[in-house]
Design a protein that fits this description.
By secondary structure, the protein is mostly helical. Helices cover 44% and strands 4% of the residues.
């Protein structure tokens, strides 16, 4: 959901030169988005039907100049791949507290109710908005 939200928000702002990718530490390459995620984004006129999961590898991590993760566990995995210096928990980054300060993780709605997916969507949308306000149209360097 974060990828499609970020792409939509960047497009809405008219910003060029951004590439957003999603990858997971437990993803199975090629998997489709969950039914709950598909339904949550459709409620906001977004589309995840073409989404395919990508496993976070060292190569994917090295590509990025900013990696925002949803949980402390994800942060530790990214750090183990050697990309800890370009990573932050999204809640910490959105709040301007990256660099070792860890705030709450974003809850994973997997297997949850439609309401949990909807609440997670709203939380992620708010966090993405704060992140984009912080980095501005020139991106994060």
């Amino acid at each position: 959901m974060a990828e499609v939200i970020a792409r939509s928000e960047i497009k809405e702002r008219g910003w060029d030169g951004f590439e957003v990718r999603s990858a997971g530490i437990g993803a199975f390459d090629g998997d489709i988005a969950s039914g709950g995620a598909l339904r949550a984004v459709v409620e906001h006129n977004l589309d995840l039907s073409g989404h395919r999961a990508t496993l976070l590898t060292r190569e994917v991590a090295n590509w990025a100049n900013l990696i925002l993760v949803m949980s402390v566990t994800h942060f530790m995995s990214v750090t183990e791949l050697g990309a800890g210096e370009v990573s932050s928990l999204i809640t910490s980054f959105a709040d301007g507290r990256e660099g070792g300060v860890m705030l709450e993780s974003v809850p994973d709605p997997a297997g949850g109710t439609e309401e949990e997916y909807s609440e997670t969507f709203e939380l992620i949308r708010d966090l993405v908005d704060k992140v984009l306000q912080r980095i501005g149209p020139l991106g994060y360097r």
